Amino acid sequence: MTASPGAFSDSTRTIIVGVADYKISTDPMTAISTFALGSCLGVTFYDERRQIGGLLHAMLPTANLHEGRKIREAMFLDTGIPKILTAMVRAGAKKSDLRCKVFGGAQLMSTDSFFRIGSKNIDMFYRLSQELDLDVVAWEVSGRVNRTIRLDNQSGDVVVKVPSKPEFIR
User: Of the N and C termini of the chain, which has fewer Cβ atoms inside 10 Å?
Assistant: First the structure.
């Protein structure tokens, strides 16, 4: 049975994911949330059998411009996705059972093509999803709105909130 948006139990604990970070949970009574995804991508992973969920909030497509420097791996899709996948498997998830959903990648300001970070993030995620054979079951990307997302670690549903609109589930 799918819960209606916002119908989390009073005992549900929310784990907040900041920008350039990720979190995972093995507790079905948690929700994992991140706020105001603009050009950033929020990528959720969920193993339904084991009720293990994870959420990555990545800012940029690739760390290759920072070679040789210490980086925050979750800041970049090309380093953050392998990092969260490794953490999820260590927590007991099975990679072949993971379902992935991706959100964000908006263009909030009018700029020239050089600064279209949202589009570049979407392109990089698409390429990585092919390379890593990710089972992507939902895309809620691009446009000109920010999105707040919340992964229900009991059902795998992702509640999406866009300003001035009702919440909906992906």
Answer: N
CATH code for the part of the protein at 13-169 = 3.30.1330.200
What percent of the chain clears pLDDT 70, i.e. is strictly above it?
Answer: 91
SS3 sequence of the chain:
CCCCCCCCCCCCEEEECCCCEEEEECCCCEEEEEEEECCCEEEEEEECCCCEEEEEEECECCCHHHCCCCCCHHHEHHHHHHHHHHHHHHCCCCHHHEEEEEEECCCCCCCCHHHCHHHHHHHHHHHHHHHCCCEEEEEEECCCCCEEEEEECCCCCEEEECCCCCCEEC
Q: What is the pLDDT of residues 62-98, one digit of tens each?
A: 998 767 778 899 999 999 999 999 999 999 999 999 9
**Axis crossing angle, helix 117-131 with helix 77-90, rounded to the nearest 10:** 50
pTM, full prediction: 0.91
Q: What is the share, in percent, of the chain residues with pLDDT greater than 90?
A: 82
Where are the domains positioned within the chain? 13-169
Is residue 121 a contact partner of residue 104, using CB atoms and an 8 Å limit? Answer: yes
